[in-house]
Amino acid sequence: MSEPIHRLFFALRPDADVARRIEIAAAAIRASERVRGRWVQASKHHLTLHFLGNHVERPASLIDRARIAARQVRLSPFEIELERVETFGARRQSPCVVRCSSGSDCSLERLRAKLGDALAEAGLAEWLEQRFTPHVTIAYVDGRLNEPIEIPTIAWRVQDFALVESHGAATQHEVLEQWPLGEPGTT
Predict the structure, then answer these.
(1) The pTM is what?
(2) ∠ CA 187-126-128, rounded to 5°
(3) Are 167 and 9 a contacting pair, CB within 8 Å?
(4) Domain boundaries of the chain, sorted by first residue
(5) Fewer CB within 10 Å: C terminus or N terminus of the chain?
(6) How far apart are CA 13 and CA 19, in angstroms?
(7) Alpha-carbon distance 14 to 88, whole Å?
(8) What is the DSSP letter of 33?
């Protein structure tokens, strides 16, 4: 019997309208039969900002330091646009993802950088990765798409971010805490 895994990550979670529109896009891709695979439950759609590792037991100290770091982040709410579906890599089970516009990638990188700086100050620099490709995974598919599939643009007003824990094989997501972005005019 394998040990339970506690996956920790900071993420953006879509509000109800954005979640519905992501699911509509995912359903259209699934119906087109351009890719086949295991589709992610809509309740698990998110955009990861920073991954804080897999842990056999819940890492209370790491969670406490992550919460302290998150409280330091000051940034005005902003809007991103999801505009296309593509796959990553050529693995047997490639992630099929909804991607942002390039302007959205820049906005997300600002939030990610501020959170990363705060995590480093809280002693969590070992968890920070340099590469970042903002996306929302909608499926794990056999093969890959040869080219991106354009979707109707989904505008997403980013107003908060969360620390999320994914539990074991069932991969249930638990929001440990959520932080609002500052009011317009704050930096």
Answers:
(1) 0.91
(2) 45
(3) no
(4) 6-180
(5) N
(6) 8
(7) 22
(8) T
